[in-house]
Amino acid sequence: MREIRKAIIATYAEWTAMSALRSGAPIKSRRDVYTALRGVDFEVLFADDLGPINRTTFDVWHANEVKAMIEREPRLTVGWATKIINVYLKTRVYIGAQGRHHLKEMIHPPIDSGLWLGLARKFPNRPDILERTNCVSRIKDIKDYECYRRIIDGCRDAAKALDCELIEVEQLW
Questions:
Q1: Is the whole model's pTM more than 0.70, yes or no?
Q2: Angle value at C-alpha 76, between 81 and 159, nearest 5 degrees
Q3: How far, in whole angstroms, is CA 24 from its chain's centroid?
Q4: Strand residues in 69-158 grouped as ranges (E)
Q5: Number of other residues whose CB lies within 10 A of the CB of residue 24
Q6: φ, ψ for residue 166 (rounded to 5)?
Q7: Helices 55-72 and 30-38 meet at what angle, rounded to 10?
Q8: 55-111 pLDDT, tens per residue?
Q9: What is the pLDDT of residues 32-56, one digit of tens each?
Q10: What's the pLDDT score for residue 140?
Q11: Under a CB-based contact definition with an 8 Å cutoff, are residues 103 and 109 in contact?
C-alpha cells in the first residue's frame, strides 16, 4: 500500500511540474517535459536507507541534475530546468511528505515572476534580499547556476526574515 501511495504522489508530482510551465516555456509538450524530468535521479532523495540529507549534499545534487537536464534537453535554461525540478520536489516532498529526513528543509521554491513580485512587495526596505532575489526578472534570464544560486541565497535570507522554511517563501507568490 505504501509503495502504491509513493507511486501515485510521484506521478502527480510529474503532472504538477508539467502543468507549471506557462507562456514562454521552451518546452511544453507532455512528452518533452516528462522525458526531461524522468532523466533526473530523484531516487537518491527518496532512499530512506541513506539516512538524513544535508544542505551540501542536496545543493550538489541539485546543481548536477540541473546541468544534466539541460544536456538532455538543450532548449531549457537553468531557470526553466530548476522550475521543473523544484515544482516536482515541492509536490512530492512538501505536499506529499516523501523523502529523506531533512529533505523538506532543503528544497528550493520555484522561481517565477509571481515570487519576484511578492518578494519585492514584502521586502521593499531589504536591498540585501532584493539585490540577490531580483537580480533578473524572467526565468529565461537565469542562464547559469551562479545566478540561480544567488537568487536562492536571497530566498534563504527571506525565509529567515519570515521565520519559515526555504520552500515556504513561496507564500509570497
A1: yes
A2: 30
A3: 18
A4: none
A5: 12
A6: -55, -50
A7: 130
A8: 999 999 999 999 999 999 999 999 999 999 999 999 999 999 999 999 999 999 999
A9: 999 999 999 999 999 999 999 999 9
A10: 93
A11: no
